[in-house]
Each structure stands twice: as structure tokens, then as C-alpha cells.
Design a protein that fits this description.
Distance between the termini of chain B: 22 Å
CATH superfamily of the domain at 5-88 and 164-252 in chain A: P-loop containing nucleotide triphosphate hydrolases
Structural class of chain B: mainly alpha
Order of helices and strands of chain A: EEEHEEHEHHHHEHEHEEHH
Oligomer: heterodimer
Helix content of chain B: 55-70%
Number of domains of chain B: 2
CATH topology of the domain at 5-88 and 164-252 in chain A: Rossmann fold
Number of helices of chain A: 10
Largest sheet of chain B: 2 strands, antiparallel
Strand content of chain B: under 5%
Strand content of chain A: 15-25%
Distance between the termini of chain A: 43 Å
Order of helices and strands of chain B: HHHHHHHEEHHHHHHHH
Strand order of the largest sheet of chain A: 6-7-8-3-9-10
CATH architecture of the domain at 5-88 and 164-252 in chain A: 3-Layer(aba) Sandwich
CATH class of the domain at 5-88 and 164-252 in chain A: Alpha Beta
Shape of chain B: globular
Radius of gyration of chain B: 21 Å
Radius of gyration of chain A: 18 Å
Largest sheet of chain A: 6 strands, mixed
Number of helices of chain B: 15
Amino acid sequence: MNPILSTKNLQVEFSGFKALKGVDLEVGEREIVTIIGPNGAGKSTLLDAIVSKSPVAAGKVYYQGKDITNKNPYEIARMGIGRKFQNPNVYNELTVFENILLALKGTHGIFDSITAKLTQTKRNKIIDVLDRIGLLDYAATPVSSLSHGQKQWVEIGMVIAQDPAVVLLDEPTAGMTPEETYMTGEIIKSLVHNHSVVAIEHDMEFVKQIAERIVVLHQGEKLAEGSVQEIQNNSKVIEVYLGREKIDVAATT
Amino acid sequence: MTESTIGIVRRSQIPTKLITISGIILVILAILPLILGEFQTSLLSKLLLFGTLAVSLDLVWGYTGILSFAHGVFFTLGGYAMAYYLKLNLSAAGNTYGVDLPDFMVWNGLTELPWFIAPLKFFPIAAIAMVAVPAIFAYLIGEFIFRSKVSGVYITIITLAISSALTTFFISQQAYTGGTNGITDVSRLSILGLEISLNGLYWMILLFTAAVLAASYWLTQSNFGLILRSIKENENRISYLGYDVASFKIFIWTLSAGIAGIAGGLFVPLNRFISPVYLAVAFGTQVVIWVAIGGRGTLIGPVIAAILLGQIQNYAERVTQDWQLVVGILLLIVVVFIPDGLVGTVSKVFKKSY
């Protein structure tokens, strides 16, 4: 496999605390990689380090063979890596349409933005994205008046509009109802036709719905990697993560 | 699915209603000096310039979220460029000492014109300097503060520091700047040997104000304006969409300083002097107040506020020395009860009722 995105021995430190202790991750073309792990395992930090939100202390991030470690976030975005944040990170004061318009792939320079016209092609592209995330009827609605789940979709829509080669999704279903979660899973599965996807998830049902390959992080290190089956039967994983969840489930029923 | 249901026609439509209303107001304002006396015409000219200065701040504060107390500085730098030009072009008869040197330089023992001031004797150079000096100054500050990790309130504190530092600097360089008094007794403005009358000056200023408002409106309605609003709401998010946020901030900051500079340049032939008073934080704060009271992100609001407050000051000054108390109370009322400002609140109510 020739990975489109990979990290080598990636380390991130927050004032002495090692949030990532050398993580190797490989993402192939048109592949969905799901990252799971308990709270504080370093899942979000891993995505943050890839897009330069958190500075990389040691190790490398490669994208299409190029070293992109600690590059400017906007340069990384322009190269083709899109990010959806954990809490919906959208523009509440703008309309749904404007949010998607901002994200739309294209030149992002100053003079282009001044002279840019809303062409039919762009309009159609935005309508297409709105249709995919099921928010066509909300195009002119300010994002502030949407539900939490709808805001998550707006941000997923922004990533789709950005049309990056690699999509990084941080808990795309957080705060969604089971129906919304299922729909999100279908959107993500449709993404893989022309994107690589890295998704962080907690919801195991959802993981089973979308996962091809799972990476388990624990205390800043990679604990295990494999298919849904392999991970479910991995004794180390059961001990630190799944087991606990099973106990939680048992306790609540 | 029609166009209006997806609410995206705003930018591609020509705002006919807006153009008509603006046109009518412009004609009324253009006729005004023929009715008003000299005092009111002069006052209104000044207030229009203050309003335009406030519009330039609205672009960076109201739209982009950068609160600056340094806009008085950009205004004044443009003002000094024009003041040097007007001072250097006094006829020998108007020059107290009969030498080809401004009076304050003579008093401070200079015997010849400093090389960096001499070129301002020529109108084209002075006109360029009026825009370029504040714009380049702003650009350099912008490169420094917006490319660094400094953000939010710290940028505002830096603008306060710039204002204070420049005030002190201009006062200390008496031989070159005229010190506390600034540059006084300047000549009247002539273009191509033709002296501009007060009404002529008023019309020039009105045209400038209208042009700045129109250009700012066009700019803020474009994708560029959308990006500015996004930077204001959350500047980090947009960088993960591929936008170089620092460049956008530096651009609008520099443009805004250039506009402020022209306003300052046009202010001098009207005011007949420029001094470090306009560099000081007090004046910078005044600009902030105009924008706050008029309504951030409304463009026209700051102009209305500048004119209204100027008129209030004009009358309050006759009644009491403590007219600034009136402005202070007004500001408090606005901040507490109508945080969107006059125009912001009115347009919100208007939108709701439809």
C-alpha cells in the first residue's frame, strides 16, 4: 500500500505532558480508518498534529510523499487535507449556504475573493453539497438556529465542499440521535468513493457501520490495529477499552 | 427550488433601492452648503471626514473584529502630509520671516528644509504621501502583529501603545513637527493654481465620503466580506479551509489606514492646522465611540453617529463645558441597552417586522 497520508513516530507535548508518544499511522487512498480509544488517548491530538493545530515535537507527517510537519494550517488545507472538529466548528452568524460557500474548493487569495462571482457551477456544487447533507431547505437559515446534529452536518458539508483528498473527522456523530447517526454514517461511506477518511468515534455501533480498518490509541500510543473482528477479539483492547464499555453496559442494564 | 428560497441572490443583484435612496441623500447633502452658513458647512465637512474615518475603523473592527485605537494616528499621518504641503506653499508674504522655511522650523533653529520634508512641496508627492505614509506604516505594524501569535485584546493594547508613542514622538520632534502646536496657519488649498472655496472643499469631501461608503459596501458584500466576517467570528476555523487569515487582516488593515489618511489629508485645509491632539488616544477613542454608537458592521452608522455627536457637541459646548459628559452618558446607554448601535438596532427591528 502506498499511503496518501502517514505519520512516523509522531510526538506531541503539552508543557511536559506527552500527549502522543510516537504514533505511526498510515492511510491509504479511498480508505476509511477509524480511530478509537478512551478519553485522553490522544485521538484529537493526532488529528491536530496532522493539520498543525498542535505543534509536532518530534516525528513526521507525510502527505502524498511530502513532509508537511508543522506547515501552516492553511497550506495543509490547500494541499488537500480537510478537518471537521469535535464540537461543530461552524459560523453561527452566517447562513448554511454561506458556510458552504466559504469552504468551497478553489483559490483562496484576497483578490480572487473580492472579484469572485457566484457562478452557476459554484451554485450547483453548493446545492449538491446541501442535498447530500440533507439541508437544502435550510440554505438561507443562519446556522445559529439549527440543531446540534444539523450543525454537525453543516461542518461535514463544509469538508465535502472543500473536496480534500483526505478527510479528518473528529467525532462526527457526537450529540446526534440514532437516526441522525445512521444518516451520517451513510454520508461518510459515500465519501470514500473519492476521498480517504480518518474518523474518530466513540459509538461502537457507528464504528461497525463505517469501519474498514480500526486503529486503537491508548495513552498516546497505538495499542492495536485491524478489522472490526480483530479489534473486538484483541485481549489488550478488551482490557483497556471495550471491556470497560461492556462493564458500563452491564452496569446500566 | 427557486433562487429566492435558497437565499443566495443578495450578492449578484444590483441593489436598486439602495442606490436610489443613496442618490437622493447625496443630492440633498450636495445642496446643503447653498442653504447653510459658512460655519455649518465647515462643521458638516469636518463631521463627514470624521464619519469616513469611522467607516475605515468599521471595516477592521465591525467587520473583522480588530478593535483599534490607532485610527486617529493614520488620520493624522495623512494630515501632516497635507499640512507640510500647505505650509511649504505659503507665499513669501504669508511667511512671517520671509525665508523659504516654515515658521516653527525657524523658531527651532533649522536653517534649511529637511530632505524628507522637502518633496512634500509638490502636490502629487504630498497627495501620494497622504495615503502611502499611513498605509505603509499600517502595513509594517500589520505584518508584525498579525503574523505573530498576538491576538484579540492584546492587539488593541498595541494600538493604544502606538498612539501614545507617536504622540510623544511628534511632540518631542518640535523642529520637524511643530511640537505640541503642530503645523498651524497653513495656506488654503489650491489645485492647479485655483484656490478651492469652502463649498468646493465640502463637495470634494462629500464625494470622497460617498466613494468610500460605496467601495466599502461593495467590498463587504463580496466573498471577501464574507471572509472578514468569518475571521471576526472564528479566525482559526477558516485557516483550516485554506485561507491565510493574516494576509486578509493585513490587507484590510492597510486599506483602512489609507482611507483614514486621505480623510486626515482633506481635514487639514478645512481645519487650517494639524497637531498631536489627533494622534492621541483620546481622539482614537472618539473614533471607536462613533463606530460603537452608530453600529458596528453597518458602514453608514458610524457616519450618522459622527454627524449626530458632532452636532450635539456643537450645541452642548455652548451650554456647558462638560459636554463630554453628555457623550459619555450616550456611550453608556448604547453599550448597555443597544449594543448593536443606532443603525444596527433599527435595521434589526426593521427586519423583524417584515
